[in-house]
Structure formats: C-alpha cells, structure tokens
Amino acid sequence: MKLSVLIPVYNEIDTFEEILERIKNADIGDLEKEIVIVDDYSTDGTRDLIKKIGEKDKTIKIFYHEKNKGKGAAVKTAIEKMTGDIAVIQDADLEYDPEEYMLLLNPILSGKADVVYGSRFITTRERRVLYFWHYVGNKFLTLLGNMFSNLNLTDMETCYKMFKSDILKKIYLENDGFAFDAEVTLKVARLNVKMYEVGISYHGRSYEEGKKITWKDGFRTIYAIFKYAFSKKVLK
Q1: Strand pairing report for 32-39 and 115-119
Q2: Cα separation of 25 and 56, whole Å?
C-alpha cells in the first residue's frame, strides 16, 4: 500500500526544506510513501527552491500553478495527480508533525476508519499556546459544521485530514480557498463512511512567523458551510 502526502505550498521559503525532510523521514511502517507538491505560485523564492529540489530528487511529484489560486485549489491538483491508496494533507509550514502520520494511519490500517482527522483539541500531546480568538473561531466553525453535518468532530479546521484515496477522488470539490476544509467535511459526512479523530500535537505559528489565515477566511467558511450543507452535487 502507498501513502500519498499532499503538500499545497505558497510562500514558505523559511520552512519548506525542513518540513520536506521531516516528511521524507516520517515512519509509516511498511507503506510506500509518495510526495506530491503543488506550488500555488509562490513569489518569495519557494518556487525556485522547489525546482532545485525536484532536479535532485526525481521521486517527488511536483506541479506548479501559473497563478495563485488558493490552498483548496492546490489540494485539488494534488488529488488529481496522486496514486496512493491513502492520502494525507500536509501544510508546508512546521505547525503539524509528520512523525504523527502513524496516529492517523492506525485506524485506517486496522479497518476501523475510512477517514481520520487529527484533532488539536482532544490531544494530550504538546500544543503551543497562541490566539484566544482563533481558538474560539475554530470551535465555532466546527460547531456550525457539526450542526449541518450531524457529526461530532472537535476540529473541522485541522490540516491533518487522511482519507482512503478512492473516497477522496470521487468527491466533487470546488472551493479553492481555506473553506476547502468545510466543503470536504460536509460532503464526506453525506457518504456512508467511517470517520475517526485522533489527538495530535500542534506547533502553531504567529502572524509574524508567517501565519496566513485571517478573520475573513472565517466568514468565507461560514458561507461555505451553508452552501455545501445543501449542495446537491457531492460526487463527481
């Protein structure tokens, strides 16, 4: 079996090399590992760095957007190009630890789950203390998402989402921004699949350190929740 690591990238020059090394070194047992990078038109030197990495390591699949489209768009491109049996979304910063892939893999490999989310809020692992209103916003969006999906998730907005690939590939996804998280969650909830959560660590960063999501994305997510809760098109 193969795990595809889907990496949307936009302006992460300070962290990209380190996170890529962590991904390469992450223990996933006997599974083969496929790395799929999609650069969403980075302008800070990340794009050139990725090209150099690609020249040295031909095993990595690398794709480039010719304009900035958003995280959701980059993830969708990676989904189209992946070939693994299982897929996990991995941001190109250092907030999430690839050494915890096995935490998400275990429920799938044991046959318990089809989809696993890594929760920052049910964990006993280390978690950086940061913005109170971000915490409140995440909780509110998860609650609202749960109300319309009839799920009991604790962290809808987590980056770490792992899917059996056949499920992810058949979902019709249209959102190009951060509201991708709400769309994929609400649509997965309408399928007859088994979902699990596991606690993960979280090494959040400040805006000075490069954090990109803002309050505007919160309002876009609220709109997405209402939109996709009643969307008729769930599958391709």
Answers
A1: unpaired
A2: 17
CATH of the domain at 224: 3.90.550.10
Under 8 Å between Cβ of 140 and 184 = no
Say if 234 falls within a structural domain: no
Provide the token pair at 7.
């990496």
Lookup: tokens for 207: 């805006």
- Which residue type occupies 20? L
List the Cα angle 172/35/84 in 5-degree steps: 55
pLDDT 10s digits, 40-99: 999 999 999 999 999 999 999 999 999 999 999 999 999 999 999 999 999 999 999 999
Is the separation of the CB atoms in 90 and 16 below 8 Å? no
pLDDT digits (tens, 9 = 90+) for 175-201: 999 999 999 999 999 999 999 999 999
3 state SS of 117: strand
pLDDT, tens digit, 9 for 90 and up, residues 57-74: 999 999 999 999 999 999
Number of domains the chain is built from: 1
Element (H, E) at 62: strand 61-64
> Does a structural domain hold residue 236?
no
β-pairing verdict for 2-9 and 32-39: parallel
Three-state DSSP class for residue 37: strand
Helix/strand/coil for 187? helix
Residue 235 in domain: no
**Helix ranges (DSSP H) in the chain:** 16-25, 46-56, 71-81, 101-109, 132-149, 165-170, 180-188, 215-229
Segments forming the whole domain that contains residue 203: 2-229
For residues 19 and 204, give the distance between their C-alpha atoms in angstroms, rounded to a whole number: 14
